[in-house]
Amino acid sequence: MSYITAENLIKTYGRGDAVVSAVCDVSFQIEAGEFVGLMGESGAGKSTLLSIMGAMNAPTSGSFVVDEINIYSLSSEQQADFRREFLGFIFQDFCLVPYLTVFENVMLPLTIVRKSRKQKQVMVENALSQVGLLEKAARLQNQISGGEKERVAIARAIVNEPPVLLADEPTGNLDSKTSADIMKLLQNFNSDGMTIIMVTHSEACARYARRLMRVSDGKIVADQPMSGKHLAN
Amino acid sequence: MTLKHISIKNLIRRKGKAFFVLAGLVIGVSTVVGIISYIEAMTNDINHKLEKYGANILIVPRTENLTLTYGGLSLGGVSFEMQEIREAKLAQVSSIKNARNIAALGPLVLGVVDVNSHKVLLAGVDFKASTILKPWWQLQGELPDENGVILGAEAARILKLSTGDSFETKDRHFVVSGILQPTGSQDDQLVFARLSTAQALFDKGGRVSMAEVAALCQDCPIEEMVRQISDALPGAKVMAIQQVVKGRMQTLGQFKKFSVGISGVILLIGSLVVLVTMMSSVRERTDEIGIFRAIGFRKRHVMQIIFLEAAIVSGLAGIVGYLLGWGSAKAAVQFFVDGHSGIVPFNLELAAGAFILALFIGLVSSAYPAVMAARLDPGEALRSL
After folding, report:
1. Domain ranges in chain A?
2. CA A156 from centre of chain
3. Which helix (H) or strand (E) holds A164?
4. Residues of chain A contacting B290 with CB distance shorter than 8 Å
């Protein structure tokens, strides 16, 4: 069985005549260690699909299994535990907590984890080192650049070393050079064995993925590995 | 970093809202503390005054055929003359078991005299004891000597006498040394002279018509004292006048009830302020709570953050509210209560109560916003970004 299996996922919003289908009968498998890009136009259903994969948006029907755990058969609290232990999130617009420092933002997922203060500190410093922000740990988010905010968001996503990283438009607000740096960072994490699923509508970013799913009108219309000539270095 | 750390940082960031919650609770708690402290001070003050002036006990001659109503002024001259209490016997009152509870003993000699063609009741009193027994007296003029009298306000008006005027009665010449301000009591209609003067005038040497006792009755059973005095004076009828005490205590009781009602309303308003502010704070923080939930915070973790914030502000409000209420009560007592020493003691129990009350209101009022925050669907919350 594949590491991640989605079967006949359907997600609709509204009722009666006002029903809108965001995801229409989608099925796929993702193996551990893959780097999957989800591409599509705005409103195609990419983010809805990602939120279903993130145990944050129950599908109207269908099943979503990660590491043999049927996510939506879990209670909402168990889903929270699953998110904490299995997933790292990189949100659109960074989603940093404004009144916490860079260090504290990265520490956030560890706040509710049973580990010693020293262990947590080492984990945060390690995550910040990986994104190159250790020296700016004491700053607030309004004291760092957009690219640095994205790095903080990435550090927060990887601090508890999750097996799966979900990224929603991680370079949506960044210039091309910074975007490339961020994508290389994600590529490095993938090289270390982390499964990455990334929503993007940037062809340039999609080239960093090893597999590309194209989404349109809530359906996966194309699912193919990226060939060598498409891959970014 | 802990959840407490997140709560404190958020409070610092949202100082305005935190201050609003704090202010709402401080007003509520300080009002309750202020009212309780003020009532306590008033009760102490009344007790203090009661100790000083006492719940009066009236000692009158025991008789079967005489209605001796000092208050109602229905004294019958002839029959009254027949009933007296020996002054020497009266001294036995100071030897009763609860003698230490007696603040003052005021013998009275009553009789009727003719002044300017009017019959008027003349009371011989011990003016020293009267300062304790009748603290409401306001005298314009001076206390009389052996040949002087003071007049009640009504008596002065009817007899057309002023301070310095003189009159003759029973072959004796008297000078009006002072006039009492209206008291609203029977004293307004009386002429007062020294006890010895009245005894001589009515030929009642060594005898008195009745006596008033100021008993210190905060911690003594008045009925028991009445019994003890009755035993000491078998020929006298001893009665406790408790109306004044009961009336004052009843007024205080009604004030207490009213204050509890007002406090309840203020606390309710305080709770609503906390509720509304916390609700608005939760709404403002939808995205933040969405992030918490998305990265794996359980519902209880989110609730813990909200409750911690409420507890920190409420606890602070409890302390500040107590101090403010205590200070207000001190100021109010000094300002409104005449003759009070102005001491409102620091009450540790009340302080603890204020702290717990503030905490309780803060937490109860935050329960719904906390549940609302915990129930936020992370997917929905993050869509609001």
Report:
1. 4-225
2. 11
3. strand A164-168
4. 95
Give the CA count within 13 Å in the CB-facing half-sphere of B11: 22
Q: Give residue A225's identity as a one-letter amino acid code.
A: P
Range of the domain at B173: 55-215
User: Tokens 């669907």, residue?
Assistant: B377
Query: Does residue B375 share a domain with residue B262?
Result: yes
Residue found by looking up tokens 């300080």 in the block: B30
The architecture of the domain spanning A4-225 is 3-Layer(aba) Sandwich (3.40)
ipTM, interface predicted TM-score of the complex: 0.87
Note the pLDDT tens digit of each residue in A36-73: 999 988 888 888 888 899 888 889 999 999 888 899 99
Q: How many domains does chain B have?
A: 2
Residue of B3, B292, B379 lying closest to A57 (CB–CB): B379
Chain A, window 116-155: residues with a beta carbon less than 8 angstroms from a chain B beta carbon: 120
Nearest CA in chain B to A54: B294
Please check whether residue B233 lies inside any domain of the structure. Answer: no
Q: If residue B193 lies in a helix (H) or strand (E), which one and from where to where?
A: strand B190-194
* Cα Rg, chain B, nearest whole Å: 33
d(CA A181, CA A131): 10
DSSP string, A28-53: EEE-TT-EEEEEE-TTSSHHHHHHHH
pTM value? 0.67
pLDDT band at B83 (very low <50, low <70, confident <90, very high): low
pLDDT tens, position by position, B312-346:
999 999 999 999 999 988 888 887 766 555 578 88
